[in-house]
Amino acid sequence: MMSLLLDEIALAALRLADAGVQSPRADAELIAASVHNVRRGELHTVPDSDFDGRFWADIARRAAREPLQHITGRAHFRYLALDVGPGVFVPRPETEVMTGWAIDKLREMDVAAPVVTDLGTGSGAIALAIAQEVPRARVHAVEADPLARAWAERNITTCVESVPYTAGRVMLHAGDFCDALGELDGTVDLVISNPPYIPVGAYVEPEVGEYDPPAALWSGTDGLNAIRTVERTARRLLRPEGLVAVEHGAPQGAAVYWVFPEESGWRDTRNHKDLAGRDRFVTAAWARPLEAGEGA
Ligand SMILES: C[S@@+](CC[C@H](N)C(=O)[O-])C[C@H]1O[C@@H](n2cnc3c(N)ncnc32)[C@H](O)[C@@H]1O
Question: CB under 6 Å to ligand 1: residues?
């Protein structure tokens, strides 16, 4: 069935494609749904008389390569709808896969109330998803950037309103994950992080370079500085047999594997792929460093 809105969406998709947007039809539909306050599958039900001119204003923003999630104000992450906007990193589908791995491992753990740390929490996406999906877990979320932290606080409040059993189970901490949470040293069951990992100077799409905060993106010439810091922090925080999961860039799989070597006390270090089949996160279990002569 044709309607004015469906005609406008078709035109908008062409405009977004011309602007280099990677998923023009989907973005046009999602913007239309947001403007008209309906689900994407209900767009055909909007009467021609209800067509809202804000649709074209938002399409112009997307054509200028503003992220879709900044325009709609929402990012979907696993079972959550998070508030996002200027000053916070937009959560990505790749991170949902790593978070799913952590959730499965936490459910398998024979621990009454597992303690988790999310290093560099941004919007709070990973921490809140774990609190929602593992109701026994207590999650300490660390964030250095005050703007990002304000978004995390807002999402924690909203999440507690809609998922009351998450109340009091996500603790937000201001600070650098390099030396954060000393009071938890040696007691944490799982450390998870999606740290900045893009090599300085690498090309990124305009939606990323102009809108995601620089502190969420860049990490030294090889992109591994923050991941090395997360490794040192995980060594300090984890209890024996505790687990770590760290996201990284697709070309960094081999290099990141060696950030978690047996000599430093790690075992079962493994690379994992994202939904597109690219190397995306590394996991390892904390044992202890080898003593001199051991393992020879
Ligand atoms: C790539 S974003 C990930 C945000 C969120 N975890 C997610 O997956 O959507 C990385 C986050 O780590 C924060 N960050 C970077 N370096 C940090 C540090 N040394 N200590 C604490 N937070 C840091 C950034 O401000 C940013 O919010």
Answer: 89, 91, 95, 120-123, 125-126, 142-145, 148, 176-178, 194-196, 213, 215-216, 226
Q: Evaluate if pTM is beyond 0.90.
A: yes
Distance 220 CA to ligand 1 centre (A): 15
154: tokens are 């807002």
Contact by Cβ (8 Å): 156, 80: no
Q: Whose CA is nearest to atom 2 of ligand 1?
A: 216
The CA distances from residue 141 to 97, 146, 185, 295, in Å, are 19, 13, 15, 36
Query: Where residue 292 falls among pLDDT bands split at 50, 70, 90?
Result: low
Q: What is the pLDDT of residues 220-262, one digit of tens each?
A: 999 999 999 999 999 999 999 999 999 999 999 999 999 999 9
Q: Is 93 helix (H, G, I), strand (E, B) or coil?
A: helix
